[in-house]
């Protein structure tokens, strides 16, 4: 018994490290302020413009890095709460053309990533962190204007890939035509693109006339939503109203497995129709005729527009880049990247949008304006260094254990957010 007791005593100092550890604190480049009930800490820093985030089946975190890098593979150790450490990390794909989009097939064995012009696939092994058999699967995307190409494999229809392309400039008149291949989301069958490259304009149109809808997500009902960046330097009847107009939009594209959805293949109005955020600055008589969320052209009423109207209207030039729904379908989290086109700066925050899990739609409506979202993580002072030297959120991902991770591309960090549910 003495020998056994001695052995147990000898092992006691090893127990804490076996059960868990306290991660080394990583100081953020810019401190963030959190709403009550939320907290956050930097999990990894020193990255190269991290954008899209996704977890594989094994619980490893993948991020696209837009600053001449490619895709990074990060193994994590979860000690509970926000006490999450990097176990190891490495460059998974070295390709300086990859800049944002990243997705995995439902079985976790096929990885997709995008450049400005092309979507590629690789056979992926999450256990070893390796890729092989690179293929070009989608080609011919516009190489001018907005560079990001968001990718999504919907859970409710895992045999397809959604691919987004933005406009070729601030006011892209050609994007009004579906055949342009710009300012739209298209649908591709995985079996088709695996068999050989397909031109972007051969995909089925889910929605078009959406200037730059970088964030695309699926809610638990199978509904597809996107967040759109409205145009810069907006004028109405010759008056500059751009500082507080137009809205940044939350758009609904129907349930992905419902081909008869009323929204399927429809126009969302760009470049002709825009949603008003601040009617008070419009020239007379529009400043008394319009309310938040109304659709306007350059001097025409909403009756001149035939389009799918947005579900929510966010403040101008806050630049939403991603959204993710919680598992219960009671909230959507949105990253607002911020824009150069507003003074004082706005955005640069993570927000929560309350959701109705029964209807699969937001609790607020399009007239709610800024009240549609609760800000839960913000810069202490947007005037101090924004847009290029402050916390600037980009991508979001839920870990397999239900924790929300966020990338900040200007500060080259990935955060874990405590309290998000």
From TrEMBL:
This is Soluble quino protein glucose dehydrogenase. It comes from the Eukaryota. InterPro entries: 6-blade_b-propeller_TolB-like, Beta-prop_PDH, Quinoprot_gluc/sorb_DH_b-prop. Residues 1-20 form the signal peptide. Keywords: Signal. Residues 33-418 form the Pyrroloquinoline quinone-dependent pyranose dehydrogenase beta-propeller domain. Pfam families: TrAA12.
């Amino acid at each position: 018994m003495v020998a056994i007791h001695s052995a147990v005593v000898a092992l006691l100092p090893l127990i804490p490290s076996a059960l868990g550890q306290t991660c080394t604190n990583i100081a953020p480049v810019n401190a963030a302020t959190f709403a009550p009930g939320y907290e956050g800490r930097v999990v990894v820093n020193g990255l190269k413009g991290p954008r899209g985030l996704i977890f594989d089946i094994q619980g490893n975190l993948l991020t696209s890095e837009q600053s001449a890098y490619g895709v990074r593979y990060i193994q994590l150790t979860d000690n509970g709460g926000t006490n999450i450490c990097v176990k190891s990390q490495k460059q998974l794909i070295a390709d300086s053309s990859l800049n944002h989009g990243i997705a995995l097939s439902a079985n976790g064995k096929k990885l997709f990533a995008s450049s400005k012009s092309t979507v590629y696939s690789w056979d992926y092994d999450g256990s070893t962190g390796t890729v092989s058999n690179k293929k070009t699967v989608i080609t011919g995307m516009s190489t001018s204007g907005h560079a990001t190409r968001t990718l999504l494999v919907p859970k409710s229809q895992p045999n397809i890939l959604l691919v987004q392309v933005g406009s070729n400039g601030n006011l892209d008149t050609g994007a009004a035509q579906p055949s342009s291949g710009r300012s739209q989301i298209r649908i591709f069958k995985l079996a088709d693109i695996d068999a050989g490259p397909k031109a972007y304009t051969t995909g089925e149109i889910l929605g078009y006339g959406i200037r730059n809808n970088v964030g695309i997500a699926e809610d638990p009902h199978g509904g597809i939503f996107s967040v759109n960046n409205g145009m810069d330097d907006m004028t109405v009847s010759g008056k500059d109203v751009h500082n507080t107009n137009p809205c940044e939009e939350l758009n609904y594209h129907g349930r992905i497995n419902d081909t008869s959805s009323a929204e399927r293949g429809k126009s969302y109005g760009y470049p002709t129709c825009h949603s008003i955020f601040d009617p008070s600055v419009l020239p007379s008589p529009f400043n008394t005729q319009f309310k938040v969320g109304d659709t306007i052209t350059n001097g025409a009423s909403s009756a001149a527009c035939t389009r799918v109207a947005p579900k929510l209207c966010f403040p101008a030039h806050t630049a939403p880049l991603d959204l993710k729904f919680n598992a219960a379908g009671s909230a959507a989290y949105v990253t607002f990247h911020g824009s150069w086109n507003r003074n004082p700066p706005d955005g640069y925050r993570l927000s929560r949008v309350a959701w109705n899990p029964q209807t699969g739609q937001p609790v607020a409506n399009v007239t709610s304006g800024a009240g549609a979202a609760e800000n839960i993580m913000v810069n202490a002072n947007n005037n101090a260094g924004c847009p290029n030297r402050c916390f600037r959120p980009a991508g979001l991902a839920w870990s397999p254990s239900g924790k929300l991770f966020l990338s900040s591309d200007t500060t080259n960090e990935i955060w874990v957010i405590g309290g998000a549910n």
